[in-house]
Amino acid sequence: MSTVAVRSAQLPPAVPITVRRFRQPKKNIPQTKVERDHILGTIRKYLETAKLVPPAPLDEMRYHAEKIVADNNFNPIYRDYIGVLLSNELWRETLATIPYEKRLLLMPKCLRVESKCPAPFDEFGLLCKQCGLCTIQDFQNEAEKLGYAVLVAEGSAIVMSLIQTGKIEAIVGISCLPVLERTFPYVEAAAIPAVAVPLLQDDCIDTTVDIDWVWDYIHLTSEDKTRRLNLNKLHEDVREWFTRESLDALLGKPHDRTEEIAREWLARAGNRWRPFLTVASYQALREDPEGPLSDDLKKAAIAVECFHKASLVHDDIEDNDAQRYGEATLHAEHGMPVALNVGDLLIGEGYRLLADSNVRADYRTAMLKIAAEGQRELCRGQGAELLWNNHPVALSSTQVLEIFRSKTAPAFEVALKIGAALSGRLDEVEEALHEYSEALGIAYQIHDDLDDLATTLPRTTLSPSAPASCWPSSASAARERSKTPWRGSGMASSRNLLTRPRSAPGQNPAPPMRRPCSCWRATRNRPYAAFKRGQRQPQGAPPSGDRQDLQRPGDQRLVPRVRGEECHDRGQGAGAVATPAPEPAPAA
Question: Which of 388, 386, 261 lies closest to 318, judged by CA?
Fold first, then answer.
C-alpha cells in the first residue's frame, strides 16, 4: 500500500454548453477568430491616440478604417468590417454609463437553426422557445437577467419606435454588414449609443457570430473598473520592478555573498505572472485604479516572487534538473547546500517584506496569514508527489488533479489574495479567489503538461488491444519506472505520475512516458479536452442520453477515446487505436 495521503479532488459542476456551430465567414470578414481578435485589439490601440468622439460621420469612419488597413497591412476587403468595429469601440465608454434597464438587445432571427427552430413569431418578432439549438436563448436569458429589453426581429421601424418612447437609451445589436451599412445613418441621426457585433455571414440563414464579443458588450458597465485597465502595460511595469537596479533601489544593496546570490536569482529570467496577479487584483479592487502604485504594493509583489523563486530552487533539487531559463540551476552552479540556503533565505525575505509593509495592521496580518497558509498547502502537494515516487501506485484522474491543485493553485491564490488584502476588500472576494485559483492552478498544470508532452514525448506504436495511452497504468509499471532517476528538461516530477502504456505480448515495450498525458482526448493542435457534446437541452430538462460528461458521481476514470480514434500524441499508425470505453454505470 502507498503511504501517500491524497484526497480525491472535487471536479466543479458542469458549465452549460453554448452551442457553437461553425460556418466559414464571408470573404469580406477575417476568416479566423485569432485574426478577428487581432484586428479588434489593433483598433483599440489606435483609439488610444486618435481621440475620436462619437457619433463620427460615415466619411470620417471610412477614413480612419482605411488608415488602420494601410498602417497594419490588413486586407483592404476588410475595410467595412473594421469600420463597424471602430464605431463599436467609439461608443464603448458611453454605453458603459447607461443602466442595463435602458438598453435594448436586438438580435436577428437568422441566428436560429431555421430547419429545426420551433419558435413562433408575433408582431414584434421571434418568441424563443428555449430549445437550446442556437445562441439566441443564451443571449436573451443573460440580457433579461441584467434588465435589458430584448427583441429578435429585423427592421428599423420598431427600433425607432422604442427609441422615441424614451425608454431605450442604448442598443447592443447583432447584424450583418449590409444591414449595418443601411442603418448607420439612422443611428448617426439619433445620436444614440449603439454597438453592433457583425454576423460572420450575410445569407440570412443559420448565421453565426463571435459569441464572446456579444457577451462583452452585454455586460459593459461603468461600475466595472477593471475593464479600463491596460493589463499588458501593467504586466510590463511589473516586469520592470525585477531588473537588478529596481530591486536594489527598493530593497537596498545585498549585505553579503548569500544575499547577492539570492538577489541575482530573483532578478533572473521569469514571466512574473504571480506578482502581476497581485498587482492586477489590487488594481481591480482599489477605489482609484488610475492612481500611482505604492512602494508597499511593489514590495508585496516582490514578496510573492520571492516565494515562487524559492520554490523553483527546491523543485530543481528535488527533480535533479541541471538547467532553468536556459542557464544552470542554482544547485548546479553553487552546490546543493548553498542553493537550499538561498531558497530558505528567499522565503524569509518574502515574509520580511510583508511584515515591514507600511499599511494597516489588519491588512499586514492578513497578508502574512495568506502567505503562511499557501506555503503550507504547496508543501503538502509537493510532498504527496515526492511520497508517490517512493511508493508508486496508479492514481485515478481526480487524484492526479488533486496533486496538481495542491502544488500549483496555492501560489496563484497567495498572489491574488495578497493584492485583495492590500485593497482592504479581501472579505468580499476571498471565496471567489479561492475557487478561481484552484481552477487556474489545475488548468495551468494540464496546459503546461500538454506543451511539454507535444515536444518531448517520443512517438510509439501501440498494440490494437492496448488501452488509451492517456489512462493510468499499473502500479507495477510505476514501480519499475520509479527505479530510474528522473532526468528532465525542467519538467516537474508530477508529470511522471501516469506511466507508460502496456505492450502486447511479444512486442518490445514502448519507451517510458516522460510525463502523464493529461489531455484525455486532446490533440496536438487542440490542447483542450474535446469531449463529445450532445445537443443542448432546454432549461430544467434532464441531461440528454447523447451527452458524455467528464465525470459522473463515483466514476474516477479518464474518458477514453472511442474505437477507431487515433491517439494524437502517440503513434499515428494503424496500431495507434484506443480501446472502447466500458459501458457507463447507471446514474445513481
Answer: 386
Instruction: Using alpha carbons, list the distances in angstroms from residue 450 to 434, 463, 466, 568, 579.
Output: 24, 23, 21, 12, 22
CB of 397 closer than 8 Å to CB of 558: yes
80 to 179, 210, 213: CA distances (angstroms): 12, 17, 18
Cis peptide upstream of residue 55 (ω within 30 degrees of 0): yes
Are the beta carbons of 457 and 511 closer than 8 angstroms?
A: no
Rounded CA Rg of the chain: 28
Nearest alpha carbon to residue 451 among 524, 513, 379: 524
Instruction: Dig out the grid coordinates for 513 from the structure.
Output: 512516458
> What is the rounded CA–CA span in Å between residue 175 and residue 6?
52
Chain segment 115-171, per-residue pLDDT in tens: 888 888 777 777 888 887 788 888 988 999 999 988 887 765 666 677 677 778 888
Would you say 419 and 278 are in contact if contact means Cβ atoms under 8 Å apart?
Answer: yes
How far apart CA 173 and CA 217 sit, in angstroms, is 9
Q: What is the tens place of the pLDDT at every residue in 498-508? A: 333 333 444 44
Mean local confidence (pLDDT), 248-277: 92
| DSSP-derived secondary structure letter, 394 | P
Is the pLDDT at 546 greater than 70, yes or no?
A: no
DSSP, collapsed to helix, strand or coil, labels residue 172 as strand
Q: What is the pLDDT of residues 375-411, one digit of tens each?
A: 999 888 888 888 888 888 888 888 888 888 888 899 9
Buried b (16+ CB within 10 A) or exposed e, 154-181: beeeebeebbeeeebbbbbbbbbbebbe
